[in-house]
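Our collaborator T.R. sent over the components below with a one-line note: 'Predict the complex.' Nothing else. No constraints on interfaces, no templates requested, no preferences about which chain binds where. So this is a plain run: every listed entity goes in together, and whatever single assembly comes back becomes the starting point for the next discussion.
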Amino acid sequence: MANRSPLQALSTLLRSDPISYLKQDRPLYYEKYQKDDDKYGYSLRTLAHCEPFFQYCFEEYFKIQLTGIENIPSTGSGILVGNHSGMLPIDAVMMTMAMCKLHPSPRRVRYLITNFFLKVPGLSNWMQETGQVRATLENATNLINEGELIGIYPEGIRGVSKTFQHRYRLIDFNPGFVKLAITHQIPIIPISTLGGDEIFINVKNLNSVARLVKMPFFPVTQVFPWLPFPLMFLPLPVQWQIKIHKPIHLNIDPSQAHNRHLILKIAREIQYTIQKDLNEMYAKRKSLINN
Amino acid sequence: MSKFTHTQKEFIRQTLNTPNLFDFDLKTYVKAQAFLGFFYHNWFKVNFINLDHISPDKPCLIVGNTSSIIPWPALMFSYAAMNQLGRRVNIAYDLDSFEDERICTLAREIGFVPFSNDNLKKLFSQNEIVIVFPEAKQAINKPLSMTNRLYSFDWTLTLPAIEHGVNIYPLTTVGCDESSPTYFNLNELAEYLDIPSFPITPFFPWLPFPFNFLALPKKWQMKIGRNIDYSDKPKNDKNAIQETAKWVSFMLEGDIQSEINRILRMR
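Returned assembly:
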C-alpha cells in the first residue's frame, strides 16, 4: 500500500465495488458497521468509496505523526474535543481515518457539524453518509445514549476562519461540551492538531462577500477563489502532528451540569491544555514538510 | 526631585514606612523614573488596563510574560504602579546572571530582588507587590516564529505566594515581543565569547554600548487579568501545595496566552 502515487489514490474513488475492498483492508471496521441501519444516514458504502483516498492523504500527503491513539476508549461513549484547523474541516476527516485504521478496535466518530454544511447541495448527503450529524442537543444526547463516540470542535466556525497570522491561537471554547460530559458522565478526550492551520494560507476574510453568497466566511487563500473548481481546495503538503490526551473523567455530580461557573472553568482548563500543547509542538517543530 | 515629592507623596510615604531589606534607593529610583516615564509615555506609549484590580494595601504576586534582555515589562509595570497606585514594585529576578557589579547595584537600587523563597515571603509579609517572569531564561531571546507565544512556565515561582496565600494576578503584555525582535541567534559565537546568547536584533551588535539594548518604539498594551482563585484547592501538606502551584501556573499561562490571542485579534 505504501508509496502510492496521487493518481493511484484518485483512481480508488472510481471503484465499483468498494465494500469488498474495505472488507479486505479493514475487516474489524467492516464487521462492526456492516448492518447499515443508522437513522442519521450513515452509509458504509460511501465511506468505503472515499476511505482509500483519505488514507492516502493521511499517510502520504500530510504524513501525520499521531501519538496516543490508545487513549481513545474502545467501548462506551466519549467526547473528542480539539482545536479546529484547516479551511475545510480536514482535521475531522483525518481523525476519522485514524480511528478507522490505527485504533485497536476501529470505531466511527460522529462529528457534530453546523447547519451550513447541510445546506450545500452536493456536500450535505456526503457529510451525513460519512457519519456527521447536525449539531443539536437532541442528536448529541441520542448518540451518547447509543454509546457512540462524538466529536466536537468548541471553537466552531470561527476556529477554521482564522487568518494565517492567528494560526494556532485558540478562540475561547464554547463550554457546551462540558455540560454534555457532566450530564451523561462520559469522558472528554482533548486532541491537539498541529499543521492544519498552515495547509491554507488565509490572507483575509472578506465578510461582505461572505454575507452576499451566504457562506459563514469567505477566505482569500493561496488557491481559494483563484483556481478552477477542484484545484481551489488543494492544500499544501504540510506535515501534521496530532496528540491525543488521556481521557478526562470529570467525576462531577450531574446536578452540577447547570453550574455555569464550574463548566466555564473546566472548558477553560481544557482549552489551556490544548493551547499549551500547540505552543510546545510549535516551538519544537523544525521543518514544515519533513520532521 | 521636588516635583516628584510633590506629586508622589503616597509612594514616598509607603517607601519610607516599610523596612528596606534589599537596598532600594529612593534617590536612584527618582532619577530612573524620569527615564522610565519617557519610555512609558513617549516610547512605548503603554496602554495599561485594569491596574485598579490590584488592591492598594494588600500583598500580591504578578506573573507576566517577557521577551527582552532588559525586563521592560517589569520596569513599565513598576512605573505604572508608582504613578497610579503609589506602590513600590519588587522585581524578583535571577540577579546572579548580572556579572557586572555596577549593573547589579543599580538593579537592586531600583527595585530588583534576588529570587528566593525566603525573600518573597519576607516581602509578602510586608504587604509588597512582587512581579516574576516564570518563562525563565529561554524567553529572553524568543525567535521571530515564537512571537506572542508563551514557553511553558516554571511552576516553582508561584510556590512562595501559594504558601503565603496572597493574591496572584496574570499580567499580559502585547507589544514587547515585537519591540525587541530577535532575528536569529549566533550560538557558536556566544559559546566562544562565554555569554548566554548572541542575538542579532535591529540594534544589538550594531550600535554603541547603551543603545544596543534599546527596543523599537512599538505601542504596548498591558492588562492585569482576573485574580486566580485557588482558595478551594488543598494546601495541607507539601505535595498538595506543589500540585496547587502546578495548577495555578498552568492557569496563569493559559490566561495570559488567551488574553494575548484576544488582544491580537482585536488589533
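Summary for T.R.: Chain A has a mean pLDDT of 90.
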